[in-house]
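It would be a great kindness if you could assist me with a short task in structural biology. A protein sequence and the structure tokens that stand for its backbone fold form the material at issue. I should value your view on which stretches of the chain appear to form regular backbone elements. The record follows directly beneath this note.
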Amino acid sequence: MNWVKKGVIFRPQGNRDWMVSHAAVPFADGLGNSTFRVYFSGRDRFNRSQTGFLEIDLKEPARVLRLHPDPILPLGELGTFDESGAMLSWIVNQGEEKYFYYIGWNLGVTVPFRNAIGLAISRDGGMTVQKYSQGPILDRSIQDPFFLGSACVMKDGENWRMWYLSAMGWKKKSGKLRHEYLIKYAHSRDGILWERPGIVCLDFQSEEEYAISRPCVLKDGGEYKMWYSYRGKSYRIGYAESPDGLVWRRKDEEVGIDVSETGWDSEMIEYPFVFDCQGQRYMLYNGNDYGRTGIGLAIWAPQT
């Protein structure tokens, strides 16, 4: 692979209460032709994440056509699983509805936070959403005892498939708590009730690694391809392939994108979202500081 970077397409200006900083975990939803709605998570002055969107045309991606003034996926009520953050992770079209899978945040006491996966549903093409329930559809369990999040969901024939972040625990490193998490698999008949067989799809490749997140899976013919973030000293984007979506082979050396020498994505790159439009493959991703420096765009160019 060879990804050609096109630079930053959006950077928060600090002029919205819900988006004082960050534009993290981008997701592009097609509106027709080359126009896309890009959902992302901004942070307020209390460091709480909420989901909003902007619209762009891939023919001129750095020009924002529209920036919605308010978040469409707000914080939950006091005491609920998403009272400290509601970050969109994935969207699936289901008839005339759109299923919004999102990461809900709670602050912790003995540990900094815990996450779970929530569902919201849009019946107007993604302009507004209603939360399916006050509680999460996937939370801590026997299979996932610490926390979970960053879901990628695919309707594959009659089945629904999910690749999601699952935490293995917390460890003290240099006097600070550090989470460890990797990618697991779940399946469903309706996209709401999920079975978790405990299958680990992506595991660490070295002792330095401790986090793998934000899986993005595409099915090319009979082969599954996944892009994701993995972290040792700092985040990088990785790539893996699978014949069945269950057993994966990491091929990070073939991902074709890395940090830049200078600038907004010179320290880390993470949270990739890969999508196709009019025969061309694109990637949205974040750079330094987990989305504080904005959203970037790259275009796939086959090597010759």
Q: What stands out?
A: The chain has a mean pLDDT of 96. The longest strand covers residues 159-173. The chain has one domain: 3-300.
